[in-house]
Amino acid sequence: MSLLLLLLVPAAAAVLAAAAPDARSAGRGAVAASLAGAAALAAAAWPVVAAGERWFGGHWMLDRFTVTMAGLVVMVWVSAAAASTRYVGAEHDAGILPLRKVRLYYVLMPVFVAAMLVTLLTDHLGVLWIALEVTTLATTPLVALYRKDGAVEAAWKYLLLCSVGISVSLLGLLLLAYAGVRGGLPLGSALSLSALRGAAGSLDPQVVRWAFVLLFVGIGTKVGFVPLHPWLPDAHSRTPSPVSAMLSGVLLNVALYALLRSRTIVDLALGSAAWTSGFFLAFGLASVLFAAFVLLHQQNYKRMLAYHSVEHMGLIAFGLAMGPAGAAGAVMHMVGHTLAKSALFLSAGEILLRVHSTKIPNVGALRGRMPRTSIAFLLGFLGLIGVPTSAIFASELTFLMAAARLAPAAALAIVLALVIVAVGVLHHVFEMIYGRVDAGGDRPGATPGSPVREAWTLTHVVVGAQLALLFAGGVFFLTPGGYAAAERVAAAFTVRP
Amino acid sequence: MLLAAFFAIGRTRLTTFLRHYAASSACLAGVILVSAAVSGNPAEYAGAAATLVLKVVLIPLGLLRTARKLGDAMRLTSMTRPVLSYTLAAASVAGAWLLARRLPLSAASGRAEGGELPLAGLLFVALALILLGFLLIIIRRDLYSQIIGFLTLENGISAFAVVALGGVPFLMEMGIFAVAASGVVLMAVLSGQVHALYASHDTDALRELTD
Lengths: 497, 211
Known about the structure:
The structure holds two protein chains of two kinds. Chain A is mostly helical. Chain A contains 20 helices and two strands. The longest helix of chain A has 34 residues. Chain B has eight helices and no strands. About 6% of the residues of chain B have low confidence. At the A-B interface, helix 5, helix 6, helix 7 and helix 9 of A face helix 5, helix 6, helix 7 and helix 8 of B.
């Protein structure tokens, strides 16, 4: 019941937003809808968390992993909606976004959220595939929202690459269902994740292997593994910042979730996780190393954040290749990455509103100009590169310790890449916060560096809360209870040999 | 179906190109119809009809109208010359043949199990269509060809679904249809915006975002 409510809330929000009389009420409606969604999720998830049981209602499925991911989605939804009232409102007042586009924005945002939630909650392969593709379709107009040349180009790449990728994954899903049919399931249940999981022992390993390769390449495009990533930095950097926060913070996790759900079936059919781990290890390493070198010379701070997503998806994939302990680390990392990345994109939105440029050289002396945002930005980056007590510190510690035993050479390469990233990123961030201001970057009328007092906005509240969670999360995950919680979540998709 | 897609590779006029796509889709509808006759599943007849309406009539006409409205030259550009294009296409088809033989699917199809896959020979066609779709996306430089490449790919997957599973449940098929159709509509809208910005449909114009 509450599950149905969870999906009805975004639908209602979309309809209401289409009829919103002005930008401000549309924004308020979005915040109210996201809060209602959070309440509905809490009601739906409570029995699962309390009892720890999976719960199937017809075609829906909830376990601890689902609840964790859905919680992240709704958390970022609330934050992004709150930040949107400020960000979209400011752009509307400045005449950049006409009311028609503001409405479009607030209609598509809940549709996007609903598609992500369906992807997480469904037990049906076909519904999962459709919902995953709807996330692309709903966000493409948001990427192209500004209609500047770069935005349209980004949207085209995004749509084409992700659609093709998703089509490839449909082949994989069909093969998986085919394996189910041959394994003796009726066609209806061969499309059910839980039925396939139950019958995993009777699936033909050869067919399942092919299915996994197609799924990995297809969904991996949406996760943004190198070399399937070229759309990601463009799309993530061209959308309005609150949407970037959602794309980068949760959509990548949702895609990864879909991949992990099918991976579990494959692992069960093959009897161990060793074969699929190879894929995660190879693509994870490639993503981390590639992103590390790009990050060294990146000149655009939103693109820098986007490449960070490539890097962190790589790290998560690496963790997923490192057995049960690595999987627990990967869960922590997903949580930490979502918190840090959405906080950073929302702060980047504040900077963009003030500076009107995404080029790092055009930004400088933020410490004096935007003291609150600059502190949030710095803290967010420190959390992102894994400074204690960030949740990302805890996760990296966890899966690197697992990796030191299982794959020492790869672990060394990852540590090296992390150092490169930290150095490169801190260099850029210090340049933005403490560097000198180039002429022309600031708002007309204000002399560069002049202390125009920065107003306290809703975005700061949201970002502050996320950062507090990020740094508290690390402490939590390093306590025995927190580690056990991450392990329990990871148990939903790990196969022990 | 395959022939139509194959010869489309070398075509450079949009109208001809779309006619090839429509012909290929019509064959797909035929395949689904045959499968429906074999399995006797009424939902599949509906699937065939939907394919016919959407892919043979609506999508090609819609694309053509968008193109006409924008007053585009009906010539499309290719990165490779026709001969090379055909060679590459032939290579993809051959690759599909090899792949179809190696896939565990076809190995199973010959075996008993009550004639589970009546259309197994089509597996090769489905795979070839998918590869040709990829090829179109890679070698063509204009947005329309990339859209049609994507559609060809999608046709291949539909054919694959029929071959491997004897068709997917009706609601799911409609869902996939709806998603694919809205994807194409979005692509058409975007290509209109690209046109408005760059006055061309050449993807060479889309080279700004690189690292």
